[in-house]
Amino acid sequence: MVLWMIGLGLGDAGDITVKGLEAVRKSAFVYLEAYTSILPGLGCEDLAKAYGVKEILEADRELVESGCEEMLQRAEGEDVSFLVVGDALCATTHTDLWLRAHQRGIDVRIVHNASVVNAVAVCGLQLYRFGETVSVPYWTDDWRPASFYDKIAANRRNDLHTLCLLDIKVKEQTVENLMRGKKVYEPPRFMTVAQALEQLREIEKERQEGVIDETVEVVGIARLGRSDQAVVFGQRDKVAEADLGGPLHSLVICARELHEIEREILHAHPCGSGPA
Description:
The protein is an alpha/beta fold. It is built from 11 helices and 12 strands. A 5-stranded parallel beta sheet has the order 3-2-4-1-5, with helices on both faces. It has a 5-stranded mixed beta sheet with strand order 6-7-12-10-11. A two-stranded antiparallel sheet has the order 8-9. The longest helix is centred in the C-terminal third of the chain and has 15 residues. The termini are far apart.
């Protein structure tokens, strides 16, 4: 039968497309991917009620990283919908699912939607001036990767903006609970713009390459696509001090030079005294 991979957009339950909603309602099973992103305040029960279906199953990290075997088995005989916050194919996790289904001869149909990759244009930066997107993970005591800094540096050398996707931790387990086989999960955590900038500030302090020093202009974004979204523009430390509110947050490191139209729109979202 059909595996529907359906983007939900960024705002709320109303952002699903008509085509996507029709597919959800005719599916025997509906899964919500709750690992790479979330719709804050909206869980499986809320979406099931909004979409008029009996049940939506949570596709958590364990299910997704195990290859979604249960979902694929069901899709071999019945229509199954896999719901993804944002667009259906923006994460490599989802393209891997498409490939697994294709290899099993399952008909896979995609319903696209808005994602942070295109909706980030709301801040005023031109999409064709973005370079490689980077992910900023939470550091731990013994794991402090810095590859995202190098990619930002490469983008700035090419005078390109960098979209930084900030880490989320949902249904994470401690090493102790993992070793004991206990399914006890830590409270969810969502990286803020301030936390991401602090990690970048520490790398800059150590390497002193000027990639993200105090003069660099950045854009902090929260709850993109929602009615209460927040966008602030300014120099690094000013944006780090801004209260952007609840999750989810994203960060953009601006190119070395801004087009005059980009700057004009960015100044509609001031944070402190960015240069004119």
